[in-house]
Amino acid sequence: MFSVAPGTYFDAQQVELTCATDGAQIYYTTDESEPTAESTLYEGAFPLSASTVVKAIAIKGSNKSVVATASYTFGHKVTTIAAALALADGEVARFDGKVVAVYQYSSNLYVTDEAGDYALIYGSLGKTYSNGDVVPVGFYGTKKLFNGLTEFEAEASSFAASTEAESAVSPKTVKVSDVTTAIQNHYVRIEGVTLDPTAKTITDATGSLAFYNTFKVTLPSASATGSVEGIVSIYNNLQLLPIVFSEGTSVDTADADVVRIEAGRGVIEVRGSAASIEVYDIRGALIGRSRTTQAGAGIYFVRVDGRTSKVVVR
After folding, report:
1. Exposure winner among 22, 36, 166, 172, fewest CB in 10 A?
2. How far apart are CA 131 and CA 116, in angstroms?
């Protein structure tokens, strides 16, 4: 009966109504009320450009069809994350500007754009993105507020596999006191912190912040001092979601002006400009090619752009 299938659209649509019964007249509503013979008589295609529920009924004499319903959602095309964040809750944003993946875990995908704004895309996407991957334009999601955190509930069918990658996104170094709701979903690094696994806090000279191990990373089982990288989040209150904690760091430098390699508890990190990364264990087995490699205690060799450094994971 509806020429345009129910769904989400980003451009105006012309909707036609049809009935297979000769001589039947169609009446419809666009205010979610039930259509009757007193409703608007269909006389030709009508435009829709705002979210609408259309209900229609065909009537011939004393015979009436069942009511047919079609829901249309109209979203907004945005070219920046800031424009998406400015939408009201419940509005749909289609990302038509370039965004780059920062971190993905389960249903959480964190992205950033050239302006340095960040967003959380939430949902089972059916695609995997690594740090630096460009997420193809045209994906969309509904802006939601979940326990104080802004996220975009993803439409999985709108996501495509990445075919382009840029340099990996590095975290911004901040202090605990810099962590506010204004940088929710941002990727940050805090140095000189004490991580308390019992109190679930990280503390530096400027204050304390709760953390939650959403990403199931390896963290110290006792109080430890080091640096932490993670995502600023909110679950009613501010918290940090650690991605990596570096404790008792052993550092070797492939090129002091360009690359720094850090090996902390259970992880090896490569920072700076690096086109090629390979991490090998003591037996020479390749165990990783990314900037962050999970590794047990031992000696490893990290090859960055053709130069090899030895690191120790404690």
Report:
1. 22
2. 15
Domain count, the chain: 4
Beta bridge partners of 241: 231
Residues 238 and 255 in one domain: no
165 occurs within a structural domain: no
- Is 163 within the bounds of a domain? no
pLDDT of amino acid 248? 52
Phi-psi sector, 44: left (phi>0), alpha (psi -120 to 50), beta: left
- Provide the residue type at 258 as one letter: V
Sequence-distant (6+) residues with CB within 8 A of 272 are: 255, 258, 259, 260
pLDDT (0 to 100) of residue 266: 76
pLDDT number for residue 301: 84
Confidence at 255, pLDDT banded by 50, 70, 90: very low
Share of the chain above pLDDT 70, in %: 95
Report which of 189, 194, 262 is spatially closest to residue 222, judged by C-alpha positions.
194
Closest CA to 276 of 263, 258, 262: 258
For residues 283 and 184, what is the distance between their CA atoms, to the nearest angstrom?
Answer: 42
Dihedral of alpha carbons 106, 107, 108, 111, sign: positive
